Amino acid sequence: MKQFLILQLRPEDETSDNEYEAFLKFGGLKPEETKRIRIEKAGIPDDIDPHDYAAILVGGSPFDISTPAAEKSEIQNKIEADFKKLFDVVVAEDIPFLGACSGNGLLGNYLGATISKQYGEPVGGIDGNITEEGKNDPLLKDFPGTIRVLVGHKEACDDVPPQATLLVRGDSCPVQMFRVGENVYATQFHPEADAAGFTVRINTYKHHGYFKPEEADDLIASVEQEATPYAQEILKRFVERYRAG
Q: pLDDT tens across 128-155, in order?
């Protein structure tokens, strides 16, 4: 059976490990079912072939795609170039993919969407409204019309990427989940996250511009009140759908 390829961009060991454990927990994955690669230091290895994996999962990062190229670090520019090569195959051949937050921005940017800070959202829970197209998608079928999801991002897609289908819409950030083809997905929210995971991220990133550092304790208290079972069900369904790959 093919493994799930998990590509991670977080430079801190604690947040990276926590994110990986969340992918396992809420995806219903065993470690031996995955190949985990932290690409924040050297990018995506040249010998990675998307065809070798059941599906690809990508999480978040502190990188901003909307930062001018001249101001980006060398590794960020390399990672973005690496993803372009990866998407040349994944999108063209409709290879199963799920990108969350940064994965959403990377895919949206590749497809031609404008990524900006217009629709950034503070850390916390929001309502995600499932579109008519979303109600028929296998990852969202039979969900209630509105689900709670966890977000926290400085940038987002300004519009639905060309050729993409909007599946979940938000009030303060319109593009919360979209699909390209039949198997390539992206979420602005975090289907792998829960309150415990967000607490780790809040403590790690409180000086990264997502919120004022003095707001950290209040944000932690707020996310502790959030339950996002349907968001996590999206990740579980994705894994179950492609596990036989």
A: 999 999 999 999 999 999 999 999 999 9
Question: For residues 60 and 102, is the Cβ–Cβ distance under 8 A?
Answer: yes
132 CB contacts (<8 Å, ≥6 apart)?
A: none
Three-class secondary structure of residue 159 per DSSP: coil
User: CB neighbours (10 Å) of residue 179?
Assistant: 19
User: 39 pLDDT exceeds 80?
Assistant: yes
pTM above 0.85, yes or no: yes
DSSP strands (E only) in 45-134: 55-58, 97-100, 115-116, 121-130
In the block, tokens 């290895």 appear at 45
Q: Considering the chain, what is the average pLDDT of its residues?
A: 95
SS3 state at 124: strand
* Neighbouring residues of 16: CB distance < 8 A, sequence distance ≥ 6: 8, 10, 38, 40
Contacts for 115 with CB less than 8 Å, ≥ 6 apart: 65, 66, 105, 108, 109, 155, 156, 157, 158
Cα 111 to Cα 48, 151, 187: the distances in Å are 21, 22, 14
Q: What is the Cα–Cα distance from 15 to 9, expressed in whole angstroms?
A: 10
* pLDDT tens sequence across 60-69: 998 999 999 8
73-87 per-position pLDDT tens digit: 999 999 999 999 999
pLDDT at site 245: 53
Length of the chain: 245
> Up-side HSE of residue 148: CA atoms within 13 Å toward CB?
11
